[in-house]
Each structure stands twice: as C-alpha cells, then as structure tokens.
C-alpha cells in the first residue's frame, strides 16, 4: 500500500507492506534509486511476519522534488516526520549507502527516536571521501567528476554507475530496470546529494549510536570502500559486522537470500 506523508511541506512517498505486523522495518534507500531497490526484501520479509516500510528520499522516486533540502540534517528530519506520522515505535531502521548516512544522522540528530535496532548496509559514513587525517574513502575528484557527469549526461552517468553497483551477474533487463529507477530522480537532487558527500561528515553521529547495530557490506563493493564498514564497527559500541563474500554494493540483491536471513536473525536476537 502506497501513500504520501507531508513533511516540511514536502510530500514523501511511503510504501507500507503488512502494516498490521508487530515488528516494523523502515528502509532508507541509497543514491540514486528509490524504495524499489528493496524489491527482493519486500517480496520476502512481509511473508516472514515483518512490516516493511520504504520511503522515497525527497528528490527521488515518487516523492516531491524540491530544489533544496539535500543535506543530512534535512533528510534526517524527513525521516523523523515519517516516523511520527506513522507512529512507529521500537522499529528497526535500515539504511543503504546514502540511506545509511541518513540513518546515522537520524541517530545523532534525533537521538534514535523510536529506533530499537539499526542496520547499516554499505553506509557512506563517516565520510565517503578522503580527508586530512582520514585516508579512506574515494578521492574528492571522483565525486566532483560524478557531479559533472550528472549535470552533463545523467543517463550515461547512471549507466556507468549501475555497471559498478552489483558483483553477481545481472541480466540486461535487470540493468535497464535499475537504470529507470535512477531516471525517476531529479537531476538537481542527484547532484546535490553528491555535494553533501563532500560537505558533511558523521563521526560524532556514529559515536552517539546507542542501540544494537548490524553492519552489512559486500567484499567487492566498488562504490563504498569496505574499510568504512570496519571503521563503523569500531566506532559503534554495540555493533557486529557481517561481510558478504560474493557481493558488491548491491548486497541486498547479490546475496539476497543470505541478506534477508541475516537481517531477520538480527531482528529476532
């Protein structure tokens, strides 16, 4: 069931499956897709008794596409608005890539409001780019190049990005589907979120996390270096890192059965 939640004068699209279930998971997707990236979780987890809620980040998917508001503070405020509108309590917050960064800022800025457990999947944190005294992540020049590609030939950028997203073989039809998800976003939103990767860091937010946390990432991730997950595990007190040996950035598809089982086991523990 899909509907809209108005947050800060922006209509956020929410897909809400199995709403009567006792245990809820709120999914925050990565750049540049939308909630449909978790299709193979939504196919399975509701049948296992979970309420699965996928929200489209502003500027992406079916949500409104304002020209501003793509900093982590505003994006985490959008999450808070959805949580309050749905009356979520004791839920699991799951964020992938940029969605993971949003989840981490939510835990710091909103003190983990309503969250019982946290799941970070290839999260772009504490910094997606290398900085002084932080020799991990991508070179800033690579992100600037991605922004330039976005503003000059976004379809080709999306095609190139999709080629690096998965480790397992995907069909041409699946590749085209992933490409179309990226096209649903606004060009300006796609570029502005990329600029946020450069502007913001999440060190203090990671240290503020005080709930059990599961960290999952593919060993062959070409988008977010695996070392970032290891740093997250070191900085979050009550956390466990589960590497996926046959997955890339799209671990939730590359090893979807393993991913779903590890997630369910963590929620039930």
Topology:
Layout lengths: L1 E6 L2 E8 L5 E6 L10 H4 L7 E6 L16 H15 L4 E6 L1 H12 L5 E7 L18 H26 L6 H12 L3 H13 L3 H5 L5 E6 L7 H10 L3 E6 L6 H4 L1 H13 L1
Parallel strand pairs: 3-4, 3-5, 5-6, 6-7, 7-8
Antiparallel strand pairs: 1-2, 2-4
How would you explain this protein's 3D organization?
The model has no long low-confidence stretch (mean pLDDT 98). The chain is of the alpha/beta class. 42% of the residues lie in helices and 19% in strands. Strands 1-2-4-3-5-6-7-8 form an 8-stranded mixed beta sheet, with helices on both faces. It has one domain (2-268): Alpha/Beta hydrolase fold, catalytic domain (Rossmann fold). The protein has 10 helices and 8 strands. It has helices at residues 39-42, 72-86, 98-109, 140-165, 172-183, 187-199, 203-207, 226-235, 251-254, 256-268, and strands at 2-7, 10-17, 23-28, 50-55, 91-96, 115-121, 213-218, 239-244.
